[in-house]
Amino acid sequence: MTETSGGNSANAGGACSGSPWKDPSQQPFIELQSLSKRFGQFSAVDDISLKIYRGELFTILGGSGCGKSTLLRMLAGFEKPSAGRILIDGVDITSSPPYERPVNMMFQSYAVFPHMTVEQNIAYGLKKEKLPRDEVARRVEEMLQLVQLPQLAKRKPNQLSGGQSQRVALARALIKRPKVLLLDEPLAALDKKLREQTQFELMNLQDQLGITFVVVTHDQEEAMTLATRIAVMDAGKFVQIGTPSEVYEFPRNRFIADFFGKINVFEATVVASDGQYLTARLDDSDTEIKTRHEQSLAPGSRCSIGVRPEKLLISTEAPAGEAYTVTRGVVEDLAYYGNRSLYRVRSQNGAVIQVSAQNYQRSAELLLEWDDEVFLSWESGCSVVLTE
Amino acid sequence: MTMVVNPGKRDRLWRSVVIATPYLWLLLFFLVPFAIVLKISFADPLVAQPPFTAFFDWSADAGKRVLATLDNYRFLLEDKLYLVSYLKSIKIALISTGLCLLLGFPMAYAIALTPYPWRNLLLLLVILPFWTSFLLRVYAWMVMLGKQGLINNLLLSVGVIDEPLQMLYTDGAVYLGIVYTYVPFMILPLYATLEKLDLDLHEAAADLGARPLQVFRDVTLPLAMPGIIAGCLLVFIPALGEYVIPALLGGLDSLMIGRTLYDEFFVNRDWPLASAVAVVLLLILILPIMLFQRLQQEPEA
User: Fold this and answer.
1) Is residue A139 part of a domain?
2) Gap between the Cα atoms of A126 and A124, Å rounded
3) ipTM of the modeled complex
4) Domains of chain B
5) pLDDT digits (tens, 9 = 90+) for B220-273
6) What's this model's pTM, rounded to 2 decimal places?
7) Interface mutation vs chain B, best among A104, A105, A113, A181, most B CBs within 10 Å
8) Single residue among A197, A232, A256 that ends a domain in this structure
């Protein structure tokens, strides 16, 4: 266990509690003000403003070339912004060199020094601070314990596995007790089993140390499980910022809805809209559906309504009660995963709708078969209006 | 009938051929000549053809057949000329190697950091001088450095100097010639190691608090060490035995061991003494190579 540093903040020593981003009186810990980075004519990062709070595990998610790595490199000090400012803990660090920033980074390639032992790698940052030798030794030992590598202290990096190298890179970055830890695709190079384990370890570590983490990743699953908040980035701008459940359940547009998991999209025509609920008639059935939507849309205008596969109910009999039957269809394909089954249902007008259903009952026989006639339905709170 | 070839046997044959080739090469072109030179170095000079005494005397008694003498080696120690030219050679080779490193490292680093189409062009420029004769290039330096040479004329016409400088036939000219000739041998192995250097490592060091000079000392330099050592050996070894450059560009006091060796062989026709000079030169060369191998093995230990 490591001691907690800086006791004056309510959040020190643990991951951020509550939702500081919803409280306007909270001081942001990292603040980006109209940050831009241009390479020639190309804007890699385009006028981004962002507030990250102490103890957050903030994830920047996007495909390759969206500008997320450039953003991270600007935080680390490897790229100079073309415009805008970066503040960490109230201090403007926009023009400080990397070696003077209270920020450390774990590289995607890990960048473990190949000519140094594990111990020397971890001690490197403290040696640059010219700390007394016994203090360096004590803190290296502490770090080795934290990342569970004490038995490998004398090894050279070429004798380590990928997962072990990653722990060395992590320990090396954490030993300086940075205010912010930057992680570039931290799980990308690990195999599936190790990923899951490491993911939970990272979260525990972050919880223990209370350091603010900024993670860059292209993997939506990684982002969902790690993050307190996710910023989805595309073409140098943030498309949506929110908690994992916000971006999943209330995606702002189709790009985000598609990015996080699967979604069925129904084209529809607006019947009524009162700024709270929106009623629309689906194209492929006569059903009118009611969905929460806070913007008013003119009656008669077109809209898209998205429903996640796991929000759809599938049954052979018409459902009763609050659920709105949307459409009927025929099971065209099904895949049995054990804990759940995935159905592809062909609706009456030919669209394919995906349904994911938990297999609550224990049965050796399939509950639904190919070519079964089924009803698909969802509750009104489960659908989302997608703009764009 | 088809012939059945045992594939295992054939593979083994090929493997032995492949392994044997370099050994055979070394045996024929290094060990055998070296044994001959070593043999001659233990002989006495003769005015005859060949100009040295035989190693075996078949007419003598069984116990007295080997005719070997250490006189030549003793003479190397007695006459100061040899010690002076060995030391002078080592000094010139060491300083030239150092200058090549100082000049070659930034050049190799710059090439390794240059983006692609330009990088090949720069590499081509490094090896371009080899396309003209080495001798011609040294003569060109004579033309430039001479009393009536290009540099003196230029300086005189600008008015920086009143009378021509003595540049040719000095140690400075020898250093210039050696550095100019051998710097590509420094640049190429250095480039090969620096090119593989992961730039993430530099950023990681900077991220952990290292200033640019510390990054260079802690990361760049240790990782470039194999290239530095290889480059230094490639410059030091030929520079030590260099004959042409000191002969053409050097003065009377730029007496290097290559010149001494030449004089013993062709002027004095003292083959045994010349052979002894060559054997000692080889020993001086082998020591740094053994040191290099020791250094290379260390990281694995």
Assistant:
1) yes
2) 6
3) 0.79
4) 36-54+69-300 (1.10.3720.10)
5) 999 999 999 999 999 999 999 898 999 899 887 778 888 888 888 888 888 999
6) 0.78
7) A113
8) A256
